[in-house]
Each structure stands twice: as C-alpha cells, then as structure tokens.
Design goal:
The chain is built from 4 helices and 2 strands, in the order ββαααα. A hairpin with a 5-residue loop joins strand 1 and strand 2.
C-alpha cells in the first residue's frame, strides 16, 4: 500500500487505483479454489479417525472465520451508531483479517474430506453461501481502502454523537 504525508507529518495510506483488477483476480482465485475443493470433495472419501478429524477441524475453522467476521461486523455497527471511532474499527479489521481468511481456507481444505452430498439442496445452499461470503469479503477491499484514507475521527452525518 502506498503512503502519503499530510499536515502534521501524519502518514496515511493512499488507496490504489488498481483495486478493480485486484478484486477481479482475487474473485477468480477464490472461485477457482472453491471449485477445486468442491470437485475434490466428490472424489475423496474420509472414514474413521480421519473423518472425525476433518469434521472437528471444519467446525473449528468455521468458528474462527465466522467468529472474527461477527466481531468485525459488530464493531462496524458500533462505529455506525457513533460508539466507536473509525480507526478502532479499521485496526480491528486489520487484526481479524488473517483469522477470517485462515478460517475460510480451513473450511475449503477440510470440506474436501467431508464428501459433500451434492444431491441435497441444503448442501448446495451452504456451499453457495460460502462462495458468496468469500466473494463479499473480497469486494470489501476497495471499501476498506477508502475508509483508510478518511480522517480517524470520521463519523456518520446522521449520528448525533461521535466518540
């Protein structure tokens, strides 16, 4: 990320112009990884202790990823209602992003060993939801870059109080 100095020698990140290309590449990569995991899962069958380990690891990856997502969303909501500062939310997002993406990668990897039943509509809905959530996370990259260049005290106009 590029940086620029502003008044008072405060260094702020500057949004890249190549966000669209980055988002497109990441979306294609995420869809390819999701497809690879899905196709691999139809050929791999885990039984016994390996299946127990795969299920346990899958649940752990889900807790890590979606727990971090919920925390960031909650903190973002608190910013929206004026109870947190923007820089706090950005710092939390920065800290939680590795947990989120590690959990997502864990879901894809362990999902291969769960032999998904692709004839079950609920399985297809779940798999589709995972892909949508991955793509949604990637689509947030330009938004976070725009938030990074805003003043740290930024709050919404319709909130009466900013912390």
């Amino acid at each position: 990320m590029a940086y620029s100095a502003s008044a008072g020698n405060v260094i702020k990140p500057v949004a890249h112009k190549s966000s669209r290309r980055l988002v497109a590449i990441l979306c294609v990569g995420a869809t390819a990884a999701w497809t690879l995991a899905l196709v691999s899962g139809t050929y791999v069958t885990a039984e016994g202790p390996l299946r127990v380990l795969a299920v346990s690891s899958h649940i752990l990856a889900m807790v890590v990823a979606f727990g971090a997502i919920l925390l960031v969303d909650w903190h973002g909501f608190l910013w929206l209602i004026g109870r947190r500062k923007l820089f706090e939310t950005i710092r939390l997002d920065d800290a939680a992003s590795p947990l989120i993406w590690t959990g997502i990668v864990g879901l894809l990897f362990t999902g291969v060993f769960l032999s998904p039943n692709l004839s079950n509509p609920l399985t297809l809905i779940k798999l589709g939801a995972v892909l949508v959530l991955m793509l949604n996370g990637i689509m947030l990259i330009p938004l976070m870059r725009r938030l990074l260049v805003m003043p740290p005290t930024t709050c919404l106009l319709y909130t009466s109080r900013c912390v």
